[in-house]
Amino acid sequence: MSTDHLLDVRAISTTFGTPRGPVRAVEDVSFTLDRGHTLGIVGESGSGKSVLSRSIMGLVPNNATVTGSVRFDSFEMVGASPRALRKVWGAQMAMVFQDPMTALNPVQKIGQQIIESIREHLDYSGVQQREAAVALLRSVGIPEPERRLSQYPHELSGGMRQRVVIAIALACGPALLFADEPTTALDVTVQAQILDLLAAQQEERRMGVVLVTHDLGVVATRADDIAVMYGGRIVEKAPTDVLFREMRHPYTEALLKSIPRLDLPSHTRLEAIGGRPPDLLHPPRGCRFAPRCPYARERCHEVEPPLEDAGDGHLYRCWYPVGIASEQTTLASVVEHAQEREPGDAVAAEPVLDTPADEASGAATDPPSTPPREVATGAGDGTTGDAAPARDDPPPAPPAPEGTR
Amino acid sequence: MAGHGDAHLGPADEALLRVENLHVRFPTGRGTVFAVTDVSLDIRRGETLGLVGESGCGKSTTGRAILQLPPPTEGKVLFEGTDLAALRGETLRRVRTRLQMIFQDPISSLNPNRKVEDIVAEGIRIWDPPPRSPITLVGMALAAVGAVVLLLSAFGVLGLFAVGVALLLAGAAVGLVHVVGGVGQRMTDAERAKVHEVLEAVGLDPEAAWGRRPHQFSGGQCQRISIARSVVTEPDLIICDEPVSALDVSVQAQILNLLEDLKARYGLTLVFIAHDLAVVKNVSDRVAVMYLGRMCEVGPPEIIYSRPAHPYTDALLAAIPEPDPDLRHQQREALAGELPSPLAPPSGCHFRTRCPRAQQDCVEVVPIMAPTGDGRFVACHHPLVDVQVDLATSGRAARSGPDQG
């Protein structure tokens, strides 16, 4: 049945061997993608979203181990020889990288960079290669394509460079395109142009697209399905409409609540997510999000919830899902509950304070009902190099220093 | 965009900061870059002014020109009625304690070699230097003896040339380590108390943070340290240059809430520079939109965002991806074309080359700021909202004549 899908990812895990121990950057991720469809992968830095797309393509460094199965058009990518992968890269599967400034070779002309993959995969004559490159540049909306072929990347603006990167990715007509934060380095008006371009090319070529981003706004209108990643795992995955209507995972909810929105008035208090992402060297024993979750109970710190299927392709990983164990959050409910910031609110009165990484993991290995609060001050603790100090959030009753209540 | 004029400025005595006809030009090998052209602004005490626009619009340059980093090419920056651009040397340094800046990249804007308390205390130390510490005296003594030995060697009295050089260098090295590295700098009780207070105010535990260096903190915590450093001298005005754009959304919400809290607590006035319109709306009392070095539109965020008057603001708002899948089928016209080169900005209205409403008069005449009757001002010949012709403004326009003479 795996042959039915363009891409079938099963239980893929990526582990980086580091001097301080193995880091499980991606753990047990599965999904399928069909031609013409877009999967949006959303997460914050360190959630494993970029490593996931690189693991699928096989573009991981030597110290990484990838396990699981990635079937692309019934070709097994995991464990394939570099020679076999070379045939797939560029020709059938391509990637658009985040930073168009560094993705292009600064000392090579744009024409050569586009022709490089055409020459590798297609049996074209020199004239045909050049014509193909001109046609590609024209299709990605670059004016005067003939002249651009002999220009260097620094002669183009950021948006134009990203168009060139897209042209290179599309050169051999891939069936699957990974777009790893394709617009993060660009301005909003340019972002809209590039996303429109990607959508038009996808429709024209019936490509499958994996759109990796940190911005829920980008995927909301562009993706068919959305997978939310946290701490290396998919915590929720659903068709876009379902996700926004019936989000189940508290992390998805927290993400939505923390975004400043255009339709909310000025000075709306944002619901910040307290704490920090989990340290993947020492991940929490239970749910990865439990140390920061407002709904977490004892069970969440003890046992990691499985990825449950709620039907309609809606999967989530939570013991006490939003909308079932607590009130359903939607776009409208966020607007409804919007509150103005109160001047004079003590900073400590909300869970805005960062938690050191080792404290989050410590909370899970120790009895969870009494999370240790003073770990950060342990200066003699030499093993936790990245442990950062911070006063922890005193959860329900904050000691408002001003006493202005 | 737009244009010039100062109809949008309030009475001069109400403004904490008033920028009049600010021009910043950078001479380069390829010609002059017109970074900021004829921008006028005013900020009332306690107000947050959002400065928004895409890269290259001159928003950061405007912020820096206010702090005289570098001083503007032309124009006045009136801070409580004093023109900062006319101040030099010690008087400018004295005024600068009341103006502070928070930078975009929290990690690179902190000296990695220094401890948190030294970074935060540096501002007050410069203004109230502690008595010379023993280590300074040692360095000075070493350098002095070295100089004497060197002098004597030069005249042939002593044959210890190398020793003199060594002593001189040792003295300089001790001084450098002391001043730059912060080794041996003692902190007075008053400084210690002040640093404690501001670290507490930005939500870091002073006890835990004390003695640590920036790399031991997360990005969000580093931004808190930057903020602590900027409020320690008790400034009146803080210029925040993209303070949250390098942060993840959850951390961004924490920092935005924190800035608003500190603003209330310390009675701050903020200039908030950002490219993200939703973020700007969330914190601002008034928003100014810039394009290619000129002001487009100034006014309360509710009015600008719900009924933009300038075609550029309209395009900018349309380009923002909102996290709402229902907007998927809404036809949005992405802004076509590219930002013109600031080396040769278009004549007339700077936005006319990309403006869907541009006419012949946009080529010839620079539009001036005109009120739309709801507290908002727009510089456009063909705005999306009717403007009220103001005799006083048109009179001024006739006098100022064609722009950038």
Number of helices of chain A: 14
**How far is it from the N-terminal to the C-terminal residue of chain B, by CA?**
18 Å
Helix proportion of chain A = 25-40%
Report strand % of chain B: 15-25%
- Strands of chain A, count: 12
Structural class assignment of chain A: alpha/beta
Gross geometry of chain B: elongated
Structural class of chain B: alpha/beta
Radius of gyration of chain A: 23 Å
State the helix count of chain B. 14
- Interface with most residues: A-B, 72 and 66 residues
A few lines on this structure:
The complex is a heterodimer of chains A (405) and B (405). By secondary structure, chain A is α/β, with parallel strands linked by helices.
Structure notes:
The complex is a heterodimer of chains A (405) and B (405). With 405 residues, chain A is an alpha/beta fold. Chain A is 30% helix and 18% strand. Chain A has 14 helices and 12 strands. The radius of gyration of chain A is 23 Å and the shape is globular. Mean pLDDT of chain A is 82; it is low at 344-405. In chain B, strand 1 (15-28) and strand 2 form a beta hairpin. Chain B is elongated, with a radius of gyration of 25 Å. In chain B, 47% of the residues are buried. Chain B starts with 14 loop residues before the first strand and ends in a 5-residue tail after the last helix. Chain B is of the alpha/beta class. In chain B, the strands form 2 sheets. In chain B, strands 6-7-8-3-9-10-12-11 form an 8-stranded mixed β-sheet, with helices on both faces. In chain B, strands 2-1-4-5 form a 4-stranded antiparallel β-sheet. Chain B contains 14 helices and 12 strands. Chains A and B meet through helix 7, helix 8, helix 9, helix 10 and helix 11 of A and helix 7, helix 9, helix 10, helix 11 and helix 12 of B.
